[in-house]
Design a protein that fits this description.
The protein has one domain. It is built from 8 helices and no strands. α1 packs across α2, α4 packs across α6 and α5 crosses α8. The longest helix is centred in the middle third of the chain and has 27 residues. The radius of gyration is 19 Å and the shape is globular. About 10% of the residues have low confidence.
């Protein structure tokens, strides 16, 4: 299904056509699944959040009373990137909460054996916190990171979603990565 078809379904959904909202999921599901699968393959997000779960939970965040209030394909996928970030961060918070015991009795240190490296959920939460700080300094660069890192979009796709040129996306991506590296690297 082409971008014109997706745009038409979004317009019909905005008008309250529930059938269009249902058909839209079928139209964009493959692309959302590809994005989620690519993210899942690049990052260990745990068994609790499969690519399918990520797509479904992100889509539910996008639907507002059965309507999808987006102007077009690019706007929709930009919002999908943000929704995926929220789902991933929420899952990381839940894993951290579970890791801290979730009410279970603590294990004595003698029984732990070898210490393990920081969990990926801690890294995701640290990145999310750094992105929130970056957003106050450079909101556009923060959106570029959402699209590139959380949604796995290419430079060209990110440019389309954000309405920017590819060269601007590349500059913002490089600047954001440098800023995040400095922010996330211990002194």
């Amino acid at each position: 299904m082409g971008s014109a078809d997706v745009t038409e379904l979004l317009a019909a959904s905005r008008e309250g056509d529930a059938d269009a909202t249902d058909r839209l999921l079928g139209a964009v599901y493959g692309e959302l699944r590809r994005i989620a699968h690519a993210y899942h393959a690049r990052h260990a997000i745990g068994e609790t959040l499969s690519a399918t779960s990520l797509v479904h939970e992100a889509y539910l965040k996008l639907v507002d009373d059965g309507r999808l209030p987006f102007d077009g394909r690019a706007h929709f996928f930009g919002a999908a990137a943000r929704a995926m970030r929220q789902v991933i961060v929420d899952a990381a918070r839940a894993r951290r909460r579970d890791k801290r015991g979730g009410g279970a009795r603590p294990t004595p240190l003698d029984d732990l054996g070898t210490l393990v490296a920081p969990a990926p959920s801690e890294e995701i939460l640290a990145l999310d916190e750094a992105l929130q700080s970056l957003e106050t300094v450079d909101p556009r660069a923060s959106r570029v990171v959402e699209c590139r890192y959380f949604a796995g979009l290419s430079v060209e796709e990110t440019a389309e979603v954000l309405g920017l040129s590819a060269s601007t996306v590349k500059r913002d991506w490089a600047a954001a990565r440098a800023w995040l590296h400095a922010s996330l690297t211990p002194p």
